[in-house]
Protein 1
Amino acid sequence: MTTATHPYDALMDITARPKAVFVRGAGSYLWDDSRKRYLDFVQGWAVNCLGHSPPAVADALASQARRLLTPSPAFYNEPSLKLAQALVGNSAFDQVFFTNSGAEANEGAIKLARKYGSRHKGGAFEIIAFEGGFHGRTLATMSASGKKAFEPLFEPKVAGFKKAKLNDIASVEKLIGSNTVAVMLEPIQGESGVWPATDQFLRELRALTQAHGLLLIFDEIQTGMGRTGKLFHYEHTGIAPDIMTLGKGIGGGVPLAALLATERASCFEHGDQGGTFNGNPVMCAAGLAVLGEVGKPDFLKSVTETGLLLESELQKVSARHGLGGVRGRGLLLALDLKLPIAPGIVAQAFEAGVLLNAPQLDALRFMPALNVTKGEIAEMIDCLDGILTRAGAARRVA
């Protein structure tokens, strides 16, 4: 559809979108072209970790854009070197490869694992992933994902992925064979409705992969960069994977992602991996600004405290309306609605000026800015509570 103001039909129609056109954002709020304000608890699916247009990121982008856009990835540039060193210095990894998207980072992780298998495990190439997992929309990452809706799409898929059950170590062990090279998972499955792997399961998985000489890959596209109260989710467990991917929050709103690996797992040779915009200095300048903010004293402590507040408020809503539990960690949470009413709640909240997400028909997902305030949480809870109150009254009348 084309209107006098906006040519909607010039974009491929790949998802249902409301007709509002957003023109400005600041912190936890967005404004559309009619000047309506929205409280955003989606934040680009956990992308805007510091909220919309944070000054630190905006200033870094503007400053770097005036100095150097890109010299091409055939040469070093200063922001990429600095960001790589900062990530290595704050993690258990030794080397970094920058990408433009989480899917590309996960694709790189798959390629790196297969390269490792060809060099060190007699050509082993199979990767054990998990039912309900989501790793991206390239053919390989869709194949690695355990999303049911992907199964009939774009056949034939990439071979070499087996699916275990989350939090079931026996289901992983029985899939290990001579061709297995790695195990890959999200510490918290986001798209399937925010289902966490337990810390104990992740420790068991680390022990199992070490016993069999397998690589362990953590997809921290959504959980990384402070989302769960630690800079990286694996820090909650006392163990570390061999490979980790980051995306979403690492750029604070710009297209930036990363593949990190230990020295043992880093086996790419010249020509194996690349990308025209990978390690772009403007994007890496944004990443440095994000890391500078998230790494400030007490920032992650505040994420934990705010996450506990949001969880408590959601539990109160659940108790008032007879809903299910709250799951997740930090500021990546889901509310179990126990009924397939999530899309309707999201639509009503949108009309009321609050942005929510329904990853499943019976669940709401909450991914606010990591610096969301108590007042903004209260505003969202009031809106949700009102919608649920009206929905309950309607059911009683019916």
Protein 2
Amino acid sequence: MKEIRSFVKSASLSELEKAKQLIDTAIEKYTQQQEAKKEVLDLLKEKGLTLEDLQDVVTTDKRTKVKPKYRIEFNGEIVEWTGRGKRPKAFQGVDLTKHLA
């Protein structure tokens, strides 16, 4: 608030009018957002839903699973690697062209 007071004291008329327009726009936008939130919450209540019900629908994993590019048997286990990230110990010092999946 101190910054606003000092601005008001030192600003010209045109600067004050521009600041008033910005404040009026911000207040109008805030009011519209609050009304929209109220409408959505009223609609949810009307339909018998909660915000938690919507969160289950919204949270989806958009990452796609990458198929393994390399496969090798290491210590009796099959180890697969996509070729991304740090090279696993099973593939250290190995010619990868011989172990394509």
Protein 3
Amino acid sequence: MTQRPLAGSFRGLRRIAVLTALALTVPLTATTAEAHSGVEAAPGNPVIAWNIHAQTAIYDTAKQSPTTSTRSFAIVQGAVYDAVNAVAGRPYEPLVSAPRSRPGDSPASAVAAAAHDTLLWLFPGQAESLNARYDEALAAIPDGRAEDGGVAVGRAAAAAMTESRRDDGFDPTAPWTVGTEPGEYRLTPPGYVNVGAWVPNLKPFVVPDAGAYRVKPPPALTGAAWARDLNEVKSLGAATSTVRTEDQTEAAIWWDDPRMVEWSITRQLAGAHRLSSLRTARLLAMVYVASADTLIACYKAKAHWNFWRPVTAIPLAGTDGNAATDPDPDWTPLRVTAPSPEYPSGHACFTTAVTTALGSFFGRDDLTFAAYSPASGTTRHYDSLQAATAELLEARIWAGVHYRFASEHGHRLGLAVTRDVLNRAFQRR
């Protein structure tokens, strides 16, 4: 055995359909050549197996937030992509590195080494469990040159990735600016924690400048647009709302964790389409890297506008200078508000990146999928990526955590960043 490496109908749906269609024109569809690359097909896909191990390490064990975990997944899946791409003869442009490989190198051992080493770099305290998963993976691969070669490729890809992410701006303790004037961000209940302000300063994985993507200013507090959107979330998003339907409540809860679409649906589609290890590695890297760069750009906009969330704006609506808004000091949202400024919606940015990357990879929007949420205790079914995205944008209003304008502009920003990521990376050589 090879030695272990060291340590409802959404307003503006037509606009969404047009923008989604534009995103799907990115020339990133799978080709027949990929299917005959010599990399084994699912089932028994090591890329999926190690993505599940990564979920265990990042989320179940480390308990990272959705925002923090996006960086971690991008690091792991980016290294796995570079490793498998190298073993397959580098048919695609590498993300960070193109390690030397030889014909016959084991893709399974390359995946195991790349994923293990990046996870160990991220979570050295999990060495025992990560080493056990690694030993288990290599035990299923015949000893010899193929295994050794794959491990060498995987280790090289992981080393290049982790070196590229040293001093990348990750600082979980960085605080947001908190204001006291109408419209300015205030810490949100129930925890009133001040975390996550490192994201705007994180080095992007692909795009040169995450600050180049702009969203227009939020509505003026004295205008009709502000009153309309505030009153909408006040009515539909209240914990005790009498106008929100049962299905809307279910959807709001189901979509509350942004990882639902990234984990369940992405892996489900990879399995349903019986993707090879190469195609799976490319798909997951596209999804995770696009969502990471999108969140960086999204959070730069959040920091710039520093706008208040509904949970603080509604009780203080009497200070906004707008006669069409009334304060409700007892108002609470259906779901807990994330500890970050409002505008634009991070979930809208994130989910748009994921669904756009999926659509670009498969070259179509009409993908059928379903997923179960432990939070809602229900399974929701979708016949297209566009339908899922449109429901998510509404669900953030139903949850009481975002205004409509924040979701709409988060969606637009997500499309812009993801198109750029996919135009710059993962292209066939």
Protein 4
Amino acid sequence: MITGVIMAGGKGERFWPKSRIKMPKQFLNLYGDKTMIQQTVDRLRRIMPVENIFVVTNMDYAGIISEQIPDLPTENILIEPMAKNTAACIGLAALHTERLDKESIMVVVPSDHVIKDEETYIEILKTAIEKAKAGDNLVTIGIKPTRPETGYGYIKFRKMTKEIVNGNPVHKVEKFVEKPGYELAIKYVESGDYLWNSGMFIWKTSSILRAIEKYMPELHKALENIRENLDSEDIERVLYEEYSKLESISIDYGVMEKAKNVYVVPGDFGWDDVGSWTSIERLYEKDENGNVIRGNVVSVDTKKCIITGGEKLIATLGIEDVVIVDTEDALLICSKDKVQNVKEILKELKEKKSEYL
């Protein structure tokens, strides 16, 4: 059996003011004709029924998920009492996928990524599933880098370990590396030995639970207690108590960097994690002046800008390398090189207890 786990608890702060606490980016339509989480579910539906898909989120987003994916069973929306990064999220989901089938293959994906070439993506996913089925293997999908990106983690793989599964290569992972500086990123890309870390994982439910027991004993202990109480009236209290004790750790750091049975399938299918407003440049065509424009915009002597709005007219004159995002109640104007720092605005708004968060 194949099961899907969608991680959908993120705040999407870098996409303010479109993305808000009550409606973060995974529930927005930033690319294509559906929201990002709807597109994610649609991709998984191609290889499994919706009854096998679980979405891990928090209480604030459960209602939105039910609205946007109405045929997803309510019991498949898994509520975390607090955010503790991806290791806890994946561990909790594994307790539910093992109830369907202890040897089920878990396909774990973020809820807010763009994938342009879905046919190739599905083929790569099938290769990863076959490798996961073949043994006690922890499999990830690595993206062939197209530029020296400093915003992604990288995966170094061993070329000599190549095997062909379903017509696609699978490599042993040598190591995971943190986000590099620009010079190091150039070396990674030029070497041909590194892939971008996509944050997508495929494994047997039993394999990841064994790995958590081995490398993350505290999380394992918490999961054991949660498992015993899944059907009890105390489950919410138990979840809260156990989560309160957990350290906030990613599955990459907690398991993948330590495990020896890790494999990567290289993929090239138009992937983008859409991390900030400048990502929009990679998704949409630019005009003759290098601008990406969406909405009612008149631009004069405007170059290399990202402008997105609605019906209200936005007029620009004599600007370059600027991001403008207009919503009904808030307007962002930001130089492109500062776009990663939008969180600083939110920090100010939080201090002022603002309604615009």
